Amino acid sequence: xxxxxxxxxxxxxxxxxxxxxxxxxxxxxxxxxxxxxxxxxxxxxxxxxxxxxxxxxxxxxxxxxxxxxxxxxxxxxxxxxxxxxxxxxxxxxxxxxxxxxxxxxxxxxxxxxxxxxxxxxxxxxxxxxxxxxxxxxxxxxxxxxxxxxxxxxxxxxxxxxxxxxxxxxxxxxxxxxxxxxxxxxxxxxxxxxxxxxxxxxxxxxxxxxxxxxxxxxxxxxxxxxxxxxxxxxxxxxxxxxxxxxxxxxxxxxxxxxxxxxxxxxxxxxxxxxxxxxxxxxxxxxxxxxxxxxxxxxxxxxxxxxxxxxxxxxxxxxxxxxxxxxxxxxxxxxxxxxxxxxxxxxxxxxxxxxxxxxxxxxxxxxxxxxxxxxxxxxxxxxxxxxxxxxxxxxxxxxxxxxxxxxxxxxxxxxxxxxxxxxxxxxxxxxxxxxxxxxxxxxxxxxxxxxxxxxxxxxxxxxxxxxxxxxxxxxxxxxxxxxxxxxxxxxxxxxxxxxxxxxxxxxxxxxxxxxxxxxxxxxxxxxxxxxxxxxxx
Length: 535
Description:
By secondary structure, the protein is mainly alpha-helical. Among the domains are: 112 residues; 33 residues, no CATH class. It is built from 19 helices and no strands. Helix 12 packs antiparallel against helix 13.
């Protein structure tokens, strides 16, 4: 029998789902889920206050519902009202906003990818500086690829709709052939069939339009890739860019692989590796970039176009040219020698930032009942240190970063730990299993066969006999050890101690450093895709 126990309902999921359940405008990046500030406001407040706390009023269910009423009244009176990201009443008004669980996994994914994207931007702007036309060609190629993929998705959706219409029409024909239905029911079925035929006709027309658009976008995409290749060839760039060589020759050696889905972003395990070994990985990246730059410089200076000519055959201008230092001669053909001091600073900053995040998330993952005043104080100190480091690196103050700084501590204290147990990892695992099933039956054209195949795979995973065999195999595979604890457990404990020591070392290093802003990327003028290809 439970005595003095309170049942508390919580909502769990990614930020998009949480925003929707709160009646907000979805996770659009402009508003905070928990406090009443916009992105422009929390950027200013974090900087002015030099603190993780912005001192904003929290959102409550009553405040959200009052805002909905105010918006409806303003619309009725024709008065303007500034948007705060509230669209409708919360779906479940009996669950407080403070019980919308802080999604640790999505914080980790979002911040890890933001940090890595910032480094790739530096690679393109500082380590391998691309000319504006190269950057524009690359961006236009990516834009064309995105538009092409979206068009393909629209075609696939129309095809699925048509498959469903065919199945539904078959069922209606079977009902109409029945002899026991009444005249009114038969009329209803005929009306439904007419409506279905109209929908099917419209869907076929939309499918044809989408297919034509996809065909046109494929031509545009091919043209953009050709133009990008021509520009890179004109600059003398290798087919394998520096970013690609870092991925294949450095990151892959540390088992940091880009995902084939999620838009090519990093997923959970690669980001955890970066957080665990951030300094070592970015030291290897720095060494790789320096070696690559030196090889390119040597190759450039050995080029026959830059060889020294006989002095008697040189004009005065040619003599002046030959007296130029190696760097200037390299610049003449479009290659800038990398600033090694700047590279060292950037790589060191990214490695330290990843390991700072590792320390923060390790504290947030404290098990239920394990939260102490010491852990809360450590988390406050590390968040403040990370905030300053993030600001010095010029990284964007995204909603995920703001919500980590301003609201992570209150959630850890309120729940008493256990955020990882209540997290959305199992939901993400279910998404991965569903995606794996989808890839298995993706080539089936019949919607009936697709659903039957999906149900088959799901039933196999839940079948008690199969699950019992899996448990039995796992248990028999274990070694019968005479020692009290296995060697793996002892090694894991030793690694955990070393990792905690490394976290403390990184915190001390960052705290002792002077605050120096990292260089910012160059701004590139944007233009529309079709206009670009006509140039």
